[in-house]
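Board notes (copied after class):
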Amino acid sequence: MENICDWENCKKIGEFKAPLEKDNSKNHRWLCEEHIKLFNKSWNYFEGMNQNQIEKFLKSDVTWHRPTQEFGSSDNYFNILWNNALNDKLSFFSKDSNMQNLNGRQLNEKDKDAFRIMGLDFNASWPIIKKQFKTLVKKFHPDRNAGNKQFEDKLKKITLAYSHLKIIMIRK
């Protein structure tokens, strides 16, 4: 079934969609080639918006107009992933050390788990942590392991542990 152009007094075939509203809804009308060109020349999505509204729209466009949470938010995806990643239930990273602090800073369980996952002593320096991270990335990268999901999951844990260690090293 062919659509007729929705422009007043036009009987040509409407082949092109034109939005009815600015809200990116699926509501549209059909226009012929001549009238879609006229429509496009006069269409201004930001018409009727003030500068603050335009800036707010553009900022929201960066995240596809979806709500976001602060990184430290308890329901943040990376926070949830990190909390789950450090549960080493299968004891892949069971290396332990008697050290309980990092340069006088008391380590919590997440800190200790991050060191364990990286296969490091609790008192490892930042250069050692970076070197170990590079070694582990090379070892567990999916491209080197035929895309094996187990290695991919292990690399995710290692990356999260490295990110955590980077943060605690900055804080010290």
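Comment from the instructor: The chain has a mean pLDDT of 80. DSSP finds six helices and four strands in the chain.
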